[in-house]
Specification:
The structure is a homodimer of 439-residue chains.
Chain A lengths: L5 E8 L3 H12 L1 H8 L1 E9 L16 E2 L2 H6 L3 E4 L7 H10 L3 E4 L2 H18 L3 E2 L11 H7 L5 E7 L2 H13 L3 H10 L8 H4 L2 H14 L10 E2 L7 H9 L2 E13 L6 E13 L11 E8 L3 E8 L3 H21 L21 E11 L4 H11 L4 E7 L4 E2 L2 E10 L2 E2 H13 L3 E10 L2
Parallel strand pairs in A: 1-2, 1-4, 2-3, 4-5, 5-6, 8-10, 10-18
Antiparallel strand pairs in A: 7-9, 7-11, 9-10, 11-12, 13-16, 13-17, 13-18, 14-16, 15-16
């Protein structure tokens, strides 16, 4: 043990699963965390809503308080694990203003108020750490901020929501419909009673905003993230994806690219169900796991994989950040601010080119293929592959066929116009699926 | 651009592929690297062996020098990319003694002289960065040192040598023999003219020593790393692995475990061909790629995947370290020393329990299974599965059968005694393969 060992006071805000685990580890592993930090870490208290609530891990009564403000006043490091926007935002700003470093796992807070918080930290030379906010214990924030700081990230594709990955994986593996798979996820505790934030892609969109901002040195507000959930994904689409050697994943895609309209470089950030080849590394992320695939100019493709949620996993990421903050205090000097120097414009989805897989049910009669091909050519959307499956259904007394068409890269505007034209074409009985393709 | 922008002087030692790329990026992206660092980065020179040698990237003549010592004198950050033990060791020590931070991609140097270098850095409060020394641009050093600093790593299994992974993958995919696959790797530039360091596992052993030391906060010298290369892996073993749902990978395994003899906790570090299930995440690392699988108590299993070698990839990791070093200089204070507080003993392979897959050719006659089972039971090695394949060959005039036996965990001592006993058993015609199993 060192002689002039600096003592750092740590306050934990929030006594839920993660908060209790973090507090417990700080008490239990103080010596070890100290020798890794170069500083003594003293837990000065845990701010909770209800002093008598049952905790997942027992904590000494004398450490609990219902007054977070009093804890912040005396803290060098404040760990915000309350979740939600308020009072978390006010408390984090209060902590930063006091010069404390702040660690948070609060993705909603960062996605909504990131720039305000980063500015507040920069003003006093404090630092905001948030490794736990995306993909829990999978290191992704630090690799993007530090490891790739000398490189240019060009694209991120992330499976960053475990609930939806579990649901899609169950649909893929067991052939379940969406509702059945959701029920299974709820039974197992993978989905919350109100699953909206997960299945509608809100959670993934928050994480996409955080990743895009960090990777491209640009503030990407949540409102600039295109978002589409998985409630519309059908068992038929999953089955068709399988047949074409694909799997459907809900991806958070962050991409530095050229705006198809303005020709200017910008950032496209979008969350939607996506077809990827079954051989793509991301396809190996099964169950409720997360995986983040990063392409950088020099480093090439990298993938980070693991559990993306859970109390111990999130606590692991938070404790890693606490050690980083402690080392920073020992070193002294200002924190590393969030860099936004690139300041790229956000590209709306309508200015992004993508590849689509479009499934049509058509009348099985001569001239149909030519008619369909004509629609694509008319809208200048180039077809990469076209598969016609054996006519299997009868509709309106006539034989029908199913066409699965994959396009080359085409602008959203053109593909949307193509789809509208297909819907109105007399040989098309229905446009049964439209999915974006990556990888 | 800031007003009182601090200028940091960077010296690059080594003008090979990586050195030239790093120097080029420092010149070309100075502004961007500056805004990410909070400091100006000025390349003061590149020390080379031969001023007139052809470089992969052209560099201004006036920056080249054959005198590394003169560069070190004036540098805040020294980047060692010469490779080899000397003069690299002397120059790194010289740089650290002068108070400069040092960045190195030199795995041999770290594996042989790590503790000496870390001590030299700690003495003056400088820091040694080495993200590029293991798996190039795949962030693994920083995740272990920072992200998992509040967790306990229990095991690492890494595919950390691209050449051997390429060879094994070709054998697996195309059914090639070792020599053919090596020749293909040499043709493609994946294997060097003298491939010994790769195929005999020396390169992987150096990386294992580095990972084990870092993950377990313990100096693990290279001499404590068990090492076995892939030259003995046969097409027959690869084929048999396939049939049993496995794939053979050369793994660097770093494990915190109990010494089977002393009962004390220690660290086992070993490199050997290993059978892993084809469903294991590591099995997805194809071609010359690297992948590192990390198990930690709270974070659970994590995997890091990407290209493990290459000029741009290694340069990406080095530049990330340069930005980290620059940020540290801006902050001031001492560097984060290597932590060796756990100081665990190394466990020799003979004290490690492992699972083996043993393949025997036996006489196809009544009583053979009982005799074999007797040998295992006599040595207290428990059998997990036993597969007898159809007798297909004739040897010495008699029908033969092949037995593939997978054991439960058993000590090296017992399994070795079992193998010796099998070799001397009259019903055993040959012990045709012995492989360790993980995952």
């Amino acid at each position: 043990m060192r002689e002039n060992y600096r003592k750092l006071r740590v306050a934990v805000l929030g006594g839920g699963t993660v908060g209790a685990q973090v507090a417990h580890r700080l008490l239990d592993n103080a010596d070890e965390l100290g020798s890794r930090s170069g500083a003594g870490l003293e837990l000065i208290g845990v701010a909770v809503r209800d002093l008598s609530a049952k905790r997942s891990v027992a904590l000494p009564k004398k450490l609990l308080t219902t007054d977070p403000h009093s804890l912040i006043v005396g803290a060098d490091i404040v760990v915000e694990l309350m979740g939600g926007l308020e009072p978390a935002r006010t408390l984090v700003l209060e902590a930063l203003a006091s010069g404390a470093d702040v660690i948070t796992a609060n993705k909603a807070l960062l996605a909504e108020h990131g720039p305000e918080l980063f500015d507040a930290a920069a003003k006093v030379g404090a630092q905001l750490y948030y490794e736990a906010a995306v993909a829990a214990a999978i290191p992704i924030i630090r690799p993007l901020r530090d490891s790739l700081a000398g490189d240019h990230v060009t694209k991120i594709m992330g499976i960053v929501n475990g609930t939806t990955n579990y649901i899609l994986d169950e649909m893929d593996t067991l052939g379940l419909g969406f509702e059945e798979a959701l029920a299974a996820a709820t039974d197992l505790g993978y989905a919350e009673a109100d699953p909206t934030a997960d299945i509608e892609g809100y959670d993934a969109a928050q994480k996409a905003s955080i990743l895009s901002s960090l990777a491209f040195h640009t503030a990407v507000p949540l409102v600039d993230v295109y978002r589409e959930g998985i409630t519309g994904v059908s068992a038929g689409q999953i089955e068709a994806a399988k047949r074409s050697g694909h799997v459907i994943k809900l991806l958070a895609i962050c991409e530095r690219r050229v705006d198809a309209h303005t020709g200017q470089e910008g950032v496209s950030t979008r969350v939607h169900p996506t077809l990827i080849p079954r051989t793509h590394p991301l396809a190996a992320a099964r169950g409720a796991n997360n995986a983040v695939y990063v392409e950088a100019e020099a480093a090439g493709p990298l993938m980070f994989y693991g559990a993306g949620a859970g109390g111990p996993e999130t606590a692991s990421a938070v404790l890693g950040d606490i050690v980083s903050a402690a080392r920073r205090h020992v070193a002294g000097g200002p924190g590393v601010g969030e860099s936004t120097h690139a300041d790229l414009p956000s590209i709306p989805l309508s200015h992004v080119e993508s590849r689509l897989q479009i499934t049509l049910v058509v009348a099985d009669q001569p001239g149909v293929l030519a008619a369909i091909a004509g629609v694509f050519s008319e809208h200048q959307v180039s077809v990469e592959t076209l598969h016609q499956s054996v006519a299997t259904t009868e509709e309106a007394g006539a034989q029908t066929a199913t066409l699965v068409i994959q396009t080359h890269l085409a602008s959203e505007e053109r593909t949307q116009a193509t789809i509208t034209a297909l819907e109105h074409n007399p040989v098309v009985l229905s446009v049964s699926s439209v999915l974006r393709v990556e990888g």
